[in-house]
Amino acid sequence: MEASELIKKVRKIEIKTRGLSNNIFAGQYHTAFKGRGMAFSEVREYQYGDDARDIDWNVTARMNHPYVKVYEEERELTVMLLVDVSGSLEFGSSVCMKREMVTEIAATLAFAAIQNNDKVGLVFFSDRIEKFIPPQKGRKHILYLIRELLDFVPENRGTSISVPLEFLTNAVNKRCTAFVLSDFITRDDYRNAMTIANRKHDVVAIQVYDRRSEELPKVGLMKVHDAETGADRYIDTSSRAVREACRRWWLDSEARRKDNMTRSRVDSVSIRTDQDYVRALMELFAIRK
Fold first, then answer.
1. Is the dihedral of CA 152, 156, 158, 159 positive or negative?
2. Is the pLDDT confidence value at 37 over 60?
């Protein structure tokens, strides 16, 4: 992508997604994703009912009167965006491609995060870790992330959800909120990796899918291309058996995905490319209050 075209696209994404963060998600993100740690705030005189384990013995000795440490919740978060850049994201049959919607959602979450003074990092993954951008704060950093989301070209085309989750568990030490943005079209069994990652971090799954994954149109002979393997084949969509087989595959795939989320205790939302992702994200935020 040429530099001038990229700058225009970055600016367009910024205007739209920052506006959504400012006007729609104000307060919602803060409530849904709270800091998890406890930080020392101050000392005060001991009061009846205080936990003796909180007594600050150094201050107590100096003042000759018992004082206790007061803690408050750490608000600052580290947010990690785990973004699928595999071949299957390069598909769209209606409003936009899956990767375009993933980019907008990731940018919206990033702007919501920096409004709350949170750090944001990014992991691109296919069936390997394609790129890791460490968490930082500020608008300049977010614009860099958006440029990467728009222009990044992966080396591999396959998909593994386990790979970024294992990377998150092993490479990110401080507890963070991690959004996994993918169509979750994968053959690997990622439940164990997701369960372990969610014990250490706060993992949230956002599925972006196209309506043609749910149901094939009845348009006769159709050439289909597997963007991850590069294979082409022809299918007869006028055949009811072919359309029903496609439908069963989708239902089975969705059943496995939902079961993985439930067993891993991961909050998730599923968004179709021709639907309003703002409403879906608001519903996700609401269930976390």
1. negative
2. no
